[in-house]
Structure formats: C-alpha cells, structure tokens
C-alpha cells in the first residue's frame, strides 16, 4: 500500500493518512526513549514486536467488547486504525507500587496495592505529562463527567483482561498506560481505546524471578530490550518459541 501524507510523528510511532476516509496508518518505529526523551536509542526489531503485540492485545479487547481503534495489521510495522479525537490525557492503571508512584508516595517498589489505582496525566511532553486530578480535567474541559465515568470503567476492564492474560503466562501486570479517543456516529459520541498497548506502555515482571520484561530494561540498563519483549511475545504465543530477534523475528500471521 502506498503511503499517504504524514500526519504526525511521535517518539515511538508515525501516523499517516489511511487509504479510506476516517482511517490512519500507524507505523511503529524502533526508537526507544525514556525520562521524557532525555534518554534515546534505536533498538532493532522493537517496532516489529510492539506492532504485533499491540495487535494481539487490541484484537483480544475487541473480542470481549472493549472498543478500540484497531482495524487490522497491514505488515510487520504498520497497522490500520480508526481515526479519532484523542482525549488529552494519559490514563495510568496501577496494581503494584512502582515507578513515579513509589517515589511520590515513599512506597516500597513491588508493594501490592489494596486495589487498582487509576491516575491521570495531562498529555504535554514539554510539561513532562504532569499528574492531574478530575477537578483539573473538569475545570479545563478536557473531558466531561460522563466521559470520566466511561474512561474509568473502560480502564478497569482493560486491567481485568490484561491482568488475567499475563497471569496465565507467569507475568505480573504491575501497571500500564492507555490513551482514549472520541469517535462520532452522527451526533452520538463514544470513547474507544486508542494509541497502542505494548511492553512500551506497561510494567511487566516475571512472577517467579521478578525479572523486568518491559521498558524499564532500557530505562535502567538491565539488558536487551528486544530479549525482554521477545520473551513476552513467546509466552503469549505471538512468536514461535524457537525464534530469536537476532535473526529478525518471524511473527505468526
């Protein structure tokens, strides 16, 4: 498929005009960033793995009735998605204390939380995506109260699905980040899951060893990021067990 006009380029993806009105082609790059892009690298194969894993998660969520922007995977690095208006929030669901929450609240990393905690950050790289409350969201009109109720419900359903999926392959879902989009059918608006779901946007720990299988491997210089993502893909059955990223991953269609 011939690419159309580039719409946007972010840290990990490029968006192009899709082949039909209301569609977008989402291209997954090999770029890895951390600490608001203060740390950068190019890691061969990361985009291929994230494309396939995001397809796997989004397809599963669509199957259980969680609406997403995902339409289909086009090739090893691209997928076709529905165009939507992105709500300017990052929605973070936490099951275990880690990362910025552990630092902010003086919690021991790895402490199970009494219940899943949902946090919101305002999407603005220049500001470092600051943590905001529902009061901020309402006051600045980023989302209505009905939107927030729907976002909370959707986020917890995603958490239930991903937690069970990961538990089944011996992985703890520590936390994850999602983005929400608005789509319109005439005068009717609904919210859908947008962006991606991949190890780039999750914290994943091996249940027995505590080994990190997410972007913290890159953040903390803990080894090979593609090895970690390949391990996740293999456990989930997305990639054959015998495959290694060294020979460029051959993914299951």
UniProtKB/TrEMBL annotation:
Q: Name one GO biological process term.
A: 'de novo' IMP biosynthetic process
Provide the SAICAR synthetase/ADE2 N-terminal domain boundaries.
Answer: 6-235
What cellular-component terms does GO give this entry? cytosol
Which pathway, metabolic or otherwise, does it act in? Purine metabolism; IMP biosynthesis via de novo pathway; 5-amino-1-(5-phospho-D-ribosyl)imidazole-4-carboxamide from 5-amino-1-(5-phospho-D-ribosyl)imidazole-4-carboxylate: step 1/2
Name the InterPro entries on file. Answer: SAICAR_synt/ADE2_N, SAICAR_synt_PurC, SAICAR_synth, SAICAR_synthetase, SAICAR_synthetase_CS
> Which terms does the record give in the GO molecular function aspect?
ATP binding; phosphoribosylaminoimidazolesuccinocarboxamide synthase activity
Recorded E.C. number(s)?
Answer: 6.3.2.6
The record's section on Gene3D superfamilies has: ATP-grasp fold, B domain, Phosphorylase Kinase, domain 1
Q: Does the keyword Metal-binding apply?
A: no
| A Pfam family this chain is assigned to | SAICAR_synt
What this protein catalyses is: 5-amino-1-(5-phospho-D-ribosyl)imidazole-4-carboxylate + L-aspartate + ATP = (2S)-2-[5-amino-1-(5-phospho-beta-D-ribosyl)imidazole-4-carboxamido]succinate + ADP + phosphate + 2 H(+)
PANTHER family given for it? MULTIFUNCTIONAL PROTEIN ADE2, SI:DKEY-6E2.2
Q: What is this protein called?
A: Phosphoribosylaminoimidazole-succinocarboxamide synthase
Q: Which organism is it from?
A: Salipiger pallidus
Task: Read off the lineage from the record.
Answer: Bacteria, Pseudomonadati, Pseudomonadota, Alphaproteobacteria, Rhodobacterales
């Amino acid at each position: 498929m011939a690419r159309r006009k580039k719409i946007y380029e972010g840290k990990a993806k490029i968006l192009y005009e899709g082949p039909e009105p209301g569609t977008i082609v989402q291209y997954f790059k090999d770029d890895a960033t951390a600490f608001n892009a203060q740390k950068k690298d190019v890691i061969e194969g990361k985009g291929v793995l994230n494309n396939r894993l995001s397809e796997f998660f989004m397809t599963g969520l669509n199957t259980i009735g969680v609406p997403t922007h995902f339409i289909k995977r086009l090739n090893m690095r691209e997928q076709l998605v529905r165009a939507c208006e992105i709500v300017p929030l990052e929605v973070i669901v936490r099951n275990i204390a880690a990362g910025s929450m552990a630092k902010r609240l003086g919690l021991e990393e790895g402490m199970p939380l009494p219940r899943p905690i949902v946090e919101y950050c305002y999407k603005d790289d220049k500001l470092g995506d600051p943590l905001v409350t529902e009061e901020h969201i309402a006051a600045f009109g980023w989302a209505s109260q009905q939107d927030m109720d729907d976002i909370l419900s959707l986020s917890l359903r995603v958490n239930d699905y991903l937690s069970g999926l990961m538990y089944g392959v011996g992985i703890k879902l520590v936390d994850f980040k999602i983005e929400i989009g608005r789509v319109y059918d005439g005068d009717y608006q609904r919210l859908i899951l947008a962006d991606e779901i991949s190890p780039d946007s999750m914290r994943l720990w091996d249940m027995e060893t505590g080994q990190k299988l997410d972007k913290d491997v890159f953040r903390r210089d803990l080894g090979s990021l593609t090895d970690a993502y390949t391990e996740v893909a293999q456990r989930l059955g997305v990639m054959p067990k015998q495959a290694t990223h060294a020979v460029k991953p051959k993914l299951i269609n």
